[in-house]
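Summary for the steering committee. One of the milestones for this cycle was to obtain a three-dimensional model of the protein with iron/sulfur cluster bound, which we needed before selecting residues for the alanine scan. The sequence and ligand used are listed below.
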Amino acid sequence: MSTITSIESCATSTCAFNHDGCTAFAITVNGQGPKASCGTFVTLDARAGLPTTNGKVGACKRLECVHNSDLMCAAESIEISDKAECLSYEIR
Ligand code: SF4
């Protein structure tokens, strides 16, 4: 894997890391069943993350996704929904 997957957009405005985009250094994607979820999502009443919106996917536990490679994401970028779900998740 030669690139790190960017979070192109995130619509979960209730997340402490969301400031017009993802400010986390890197997120972990997990979840169960038919949806893949952002495991970094948190609703604490605090400002979290970096001053810039350059969030990346650090790890992904959804091995069955077509974009998963060695528990990392090989997609060029992903989008996160307003329910903290990975919209690029696709079962092999
Ligand atoms: S596209 Fe697939 S591999 Fe990439 S973060 Fe989403 S669920 Fe994980």
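Key point for the committee: The chain has a mean pLDDT of 95.
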